[in-house]
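Audit log entry. Action: structure prediction of a protein-small molecule complex. Ligand: flavin-adenine dinucleotide. The ligand was supplied as SMILES and no pocket hint was given, so placement is left entirely to the predictor. Protonation state taken as written. Sequence taken verbatim from the request; no trimming, no tag removal. Recorded inputs:
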Amino acid sequence: MSYQAPLKDMRFVLRELAGLEEVAKLPGYQDATPDTVDAILEEASKFASEVLDPINFSGDREGSKYADGAVRTPKGFQDAYRKFCEGGWNALPFETEWGGQGLPRLVSTPVQEMWKSSNMSFSLCPLLTQGAIEALLLRGSDSLKKAYLPNMVGGKWTGTMNLTEPQAGSDLAMVRTKAERAGDHYLVSGQKIFITYGEHDLAENIVHLVLARTPEAPEGVKGISLFIVPKLVLNKDGTPGKRNTARCASIEHKLGIHASPTAVMVYDKAVGYLVGEENRGLETMFIMMNAARFAVGLEGVAIAERAFQRALAFAKERLQGRDLVGGGAAVPIIRHPDVRRMLMLMKSQAEAMRALAYTTAAALDFAYKTKSKTHQAFVDLMIPVVKGWCTETGIEVASLGVQVHGGMGFVEETGAAQYLRDARITTIYEGTTGIQAMDLVGRKIAREGGATAKAWTAELKKLDGQLGAHPEIRKALADGVKAVDECVDFIVGAKDPRVQFAGAVPFLKLMGIVAGGWQMARSALAAARGTGDDSFDKAKIATVRFYADHVLVQAPGLRNTVVNGAAGVMALTEDQFLAA
Ligand SMILES: Cc1cc2nc3c(=O)[nH]c(=O)nc-3n(C[C@H](O)[C@H](O)[C@H](O)COP(=O)(O)OP(=O)(O)OC[C@H]3O[C@@H](n4cnc5c(N)ncnc54)[C@H](O)[C@@H]3O)c2cc1C
């Protein structure tokens, strides 16, 4: 069953919810007309279905292979990557100044959703390159930008992000890699682990962005700098020259994303160049983190969509059990209420997550182009929610996909299991859900006294008067908004940070399902107004009603967990956990 991009829903969200028309009025985005965007989505969907999807299952089976410092990606990946770059897809989100297409993030978001749905392992290579490009754009000197950006934007060279070390994962203050000045450059030494696409055979050169400390740097996060360390050091004329002393020592054997090489990188006095100022590397990383976290959140949306499509196809074919009312011969399992419930949970949550992610992408565009503080505050509030909620829900949806398949979901042949295995990393890298939730509760709520969150819930309350024709949706949303407000007050008022953080992940989930519910309520209103596609509109309203009854109604329970749950979290001594 091949991947079909959900073009109708993507267009609906772009136009009716995320405000494509308004985004296209921002300076420099005039090319994002509805016709151009439609053409881009059509082409991207073909590329995803015809080039990336067919090598997803085989890529998982074969995996990337390591031998003598080199990594071979699975069959078909080199060819797909060449076509990807030739088609201009790598350049899509970047400024025209560097060879990009200068399109808004709102347009690159559905396109990237398609890459992630059709082949998450493949999509990680351009994702990491994009992160490295953004760091260079943000803080790189003119000469570094000129030397690296054109080839990276085109995809001829790829990028990596080297943060993690064995003793420094969530806590980057513990980074130990060293960088010593040597004339116009630095010599970088140390070991990095878990580096996505740290070594591979898709591109001519690999541009590593590496966090390291200079000898005089202060301890902790304030002593970390950012360096470019190319695999091949550039000659004077800018062409790739001799091999740098940065090598891949091995790649990991993992639960999922087998085709994406996860490298252990060893730097031994490797030639590196400072990006920005000394000791301000982590700051640069943090600015970029919004984009990277958003991109991983989108992986949750994408994998949910793909898992749903496969489960739906299976449910229409698999004959089992009689019709509850009509009896007779065995029927496709999609006729059974419980299977329909699972499919609706998959569909409605995928749609709610897509709507929230795209709306956040539009706010990113507004914040970037207009420097609007309101949009930036909304983005800052929503990034941990998009990252944390969409990835946690992506796993749940992929797991439901296995369940719909019954035993066939547990064996690898159907492909349903791959989505669950691939999805599992998304709540871990780029900051675990726990870290996202602490960011949400600590930086985004408590630090500013809940101001942005309260401004946001005030917006949601304005919808109430419009939802008269949808009483169940109206009630569930009102209860959800009340739950968020009460939790915000609780978090702001809590004196003990352990009490705030004990309920951080349930609070993040609450924010996610209410933010998703907000977008779903807006979807119901847009569909009720009519989009010109009666069948789509009816299905949308029914899907929103389902979401309200099955997902949004969880909000009051989560509120109770946030407000009352800390006691149980902190009750046991460490010895009492296992009363052996
Ligand atoms: C496949 C894969 C690809 C990756 N790609 C990259 C990459 O390209 N570049 C890169 O630099 N890194 C990469 N990573 C590393 C990834 O970002 C880290 O694994 C992640 O940040 C978590 O760090 P850790 O594994 O050390 O876990 P730890 O930090 O040890 O966390 C373990 C557990 O403790 C919790 N925890 C930790 N600290 C706290 C705290 N203060 N409060 C509450 N809970 C806490 C965490 O939530 C988690 O549940 C990758 C990892 C994998 C597996």
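Audit: result stored. Residues 128, 161-164, 169-170, 194-196, 254, 262, 425, 428-432, 434-435, 438 surround flavin-adenine dinucleotide (CB under 6 Å). DSSP finds 21 helices and eleven strands in the chain.
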